[in-house]
Task: structure prediction
Amino acid sequence: MTEWNTKALIEADKRFIWHPFTDMREWCAPEHEPLILVEGQGATLRDSTGREYIDGNSSIWTNIHGHNNPHINAAIRRQLDRVAHTSFLGFTNPAAIELAQAIVELFPDNPTSRVFFSDDGSTGIEVALRIADQYWRLRHSRRHQFIAFQNGYHGDTAGAASLGAATMFQIGSTRWNFPAMQVPNIKALEALAPAEIAKTAAVVIEPLIQGAAGMRLWPPGTLRAVREWCSRTDTLLIVDEVMTGFGRTGRMFGSEHEAVIPDIMVMAKALSGGYLPLAITLVTEKLFSAFDGSVAEGKALAYGHSYTGNALACAAAKASLEIFENERVLETLQPKIRHLSATLADLEKLTGVKEVRQCGFIAGIEMKESPSSAGSNLAAAACVEARRYGLLTRPIGNVIVLMPPLCITMDQLTKAVEALGVSIADVWRRSVIAAKKNAEEVTA
Ligand SMILES: Cc1ncc(COP(=O)(O)O)c(C=O)c1O
Result:
């Protein structure tokens, strides 16, 4: 095992690195000791000091078949021995071609049959918005506005952020790329005035569950109703499967639960098995055919990055799809989903827990407000505590996320939920004691 100089690495990290979505003052504070993750095997990760943890949030919702998966490793190595990357602009490559075909074949009955590659969830959505926008312009339509759902999250590039639903992007008078409005639910969508509908290019939705909103479940039938509204009003439907895709909900894609066929589907995160950055924006042949024409006519899609169609990432994604089939992953997942439900029921009984939400293999455990100091985040404290019991995960607001790789064993799953149970109980107990102490000090 490699010996790591943890202290020197932390010092260098704090000196040279700017972390995403991070309060860098807190990060760089002398008392903050970030974990340095150095190895992974199956559903577990190891830090630079040799401690092992269950990967409770699948390394930010990406990993599905486990770390160091032999089949994906071999596919990447095979590709690496040929070539790591070649341009997708003016050229193509077998790994991307094979993956595109395999993805389209997942939907034999759907008209979604064109694959546009990009790099991550945000760029996948960015592409979806640009395609929808350009599609209507090519048809000389007035439709140019997007509708998203309140609290939804679709990424942080300018276009994706212009959907504006995530509160973190509602910072003053920011002006992103696309005009967009947010609606709270299907009722509000159905109540839109005809003038508003006439301006709408597409509706964007996370199917079944809003992830970054804190694992909030849509009432059953919502996605279906949105599909029907879009069909009725001739509006495009963009389904964001970035979190829900590739088995997380118990089926390959979230939209399958309500038999919904979108006009555009975006997949990323677990697409490459959680190995390499890769996204796909999958569109219908009808949409694609609107772009049939020359660059001079404005019919090329003006989008693409240096690493578009990267062969290593595509090889990893193709290998991941093979695992789904060879190892009957969705079948073996069903008893795990039932086991997760059974163990989560124990968490629901804890005094510190407000609500437990589950969608397939995705769980959100919402904590009650801290009795000791209003606004303090007990979910964050419980996640830090859980490390002591061998579990890594991150909160969203006051919600603890549990979304392990699909390959996790029953035993590891039990341990993960138990680790959360003791951590929540510890954190809640400390908070109650602190509240009592505060009250005594006030009355003294
Ligand atoms: C539903 C959804 N869409 C898009 C994104 C953006 O993906 P990425 O972080 O890969 O850009 C996320 C990220 O969490 C997401 O959950």
About this structure: The mean pLDDT is 95.
